[in-house]
From TrEMBL:
GO MF annotations in UniProt: heme binding; metal ion binding; oxygen binding; oxygen carrier activity
Naturally occurring in which organism (per UniProt): Sinomicrobium weinanense
SUPFAM superfamilies in the record: Globin-like (SSF46458)
Phylogenetic lineage: Bacteria, Pseudomonadati, Bacteroidota, Flavobacteriia, Flavobacteriales
Family designation: Belongs to the truncated hemoglobin family. Group II subfamily.
Protein's name in the database: Globin
Length: 158
């Protein structure tokens, strides 16, 4: 049976995702569209975001094992009033950094990765503009996989 890596593994693991998030936070604090949302974020928050994304993409459960939850991440966005312009800028900036870091650019990975980012940022906008959180505190963490692609393209057939 063919082994299909998780998106987390295919991306390069925790260190790559940490670098992606670190570089993102380095840039957002000077970005005219995003700086007001991010200037107060701590290094601990950056680590939590990297652990959250890693876990969602199939990596170790470092986020939940350190007290994090899906509900907790939703609460971070609650009543922040994120605009569609900010969401699009967030997406564009993170994808620019993914290119700079040379995250895999095969169509299968990028379609799954972009789909997750689209889903997550759209959910953040909804929750940031809501008066209530319609989610149970023990809601399970989301899990994101390859979707319909059946795994990454591998020219060697492995």
């Amino acid at each position: 049976m063919k082994h299909i890596p998780t998106l987390y593994q295919w991306a390069g693991g925790l260190e790559v995702i940490k670098e992606l998030i670190t570089k993102f936070y380095d840039k957002v604090v000077t970005d005219d569209v995003l700086k007001d949302l991010f200037t107060h974020m701590s290094e601990e928050h950056q680590i939590n975001v990297a652990r959250f994304i890693s876990e969602v993409l199939g990596g170790p459960k470092l986020y939940t094992e350190n007290g994090g939850s899906h509900f907790g991440m939703i609460k971070k966005h609650f009543q922040k009033n994120i605009s569609e312009e900010q969401r699009r800028r967030w997406m564009n900036l993170l994808l620019e950094i993914a290119n700079e870091l040379k995250l895999p650019d095969d169509p299968e990975f990028r379609s799954a990765f972009v789909a997750y980012l689209e889903w997550g940022t759209r959910l953040a906008v909804i929750n940031s503009n809501s008066d209530t959180i319609d989610m149970a505190p023990d809601e399970p963490m989301p899990k994101w996989g390859w979707g319909e692609t059946g795994g990454p393209y591998n020219p060697n057939g492995n």
